[in-house]
Amino acid sequence: MPKSKEEDFETFIRSDIIHKIKKVRWKHPPISENVENKPQSLSVKSIYDLNEKLKNFYFITVRNYSNKPKFRYFLVISFANQSSDLLVHLAREIVLKHELKLIQYSIFPKTLRIQLLCMIEIQTIKNYNTSIKVLKSSRKDFQEKLVRLNDLVQDFKG
């Protein structure tokens, strides 16, 4: 009997994405999401560090607040290792343009650093490769924006 799309997608995740990838240990705080103007909590099941395959990327598995589907998967790229209000303001326009989600989250809770992360939900196998391209492009745009801001500050100083 042929596998369902959901089972096929689960197999793809286990065999192609997180196979032999380092899992980030420790307990992780939940991720909040607004659904119909009500905050819903997505408890984090696991976080995988994809740095060996993709620099600055993480893969997050969360338990869904509803039963269907049971788990949701997010591909995440780090915009900054230390988040601030200024960085969030700079990244906001880029994230809205690409229809991504921007969160301040601690991937490594014991370090007490809140990172600025950009994330996209992965729902299909085809969606994975395009998501990587979109996240890389958005990070590049963000880095260019930071360089322009730095140049403006340097010009103002001197």
Q: Please report the number of helical segments.
A: 3
Total tally of structural domains: 1
Q: What is the number of strand segments?
A: 7
- SS content category: alpha+beta
Topology:
Blueprint: H1 5-17, E1 22-24, E2 31-35, E3 38-49, E4 57-63, E5 71-80, H2 85-97, E6 101-105, E7 115-122, H3 125-157
Antiparallel strand pairs: 1-3, 2-3, 3-4, 4-5, 5-7, 6-7
Helix pairs in contact: 2-3
Key terms:
37% helix; single chain; seven-stranded antiparallel β-sheet; 32% strand; 158 residues; globular; alpha+beta; 3 helices; Yope Regulator, Chain: A
Description:
The chain has one domain: 2-Layer Sandwich (Yope Regulator, Chain: A). α2 packs across α3 (125-157). It has 3 helices and 7 strands. 37% of the residues lie in helices and 32% in strands. The chain is α+β, with helices and mostly antiparallel strands. β4 and β5 form a beta hairpin. The protein has helices at 5-17, 85-97, 125-157; strands spanning 22-24, 31-35, 38-49, 57-63, 71-80, 101-105, 115-122.
How do you describe this structure in short?
The chain has 158 residues and is of the alpha+beta class. The protein has 3 helices and 7 strands, in the order αβββββαββα.
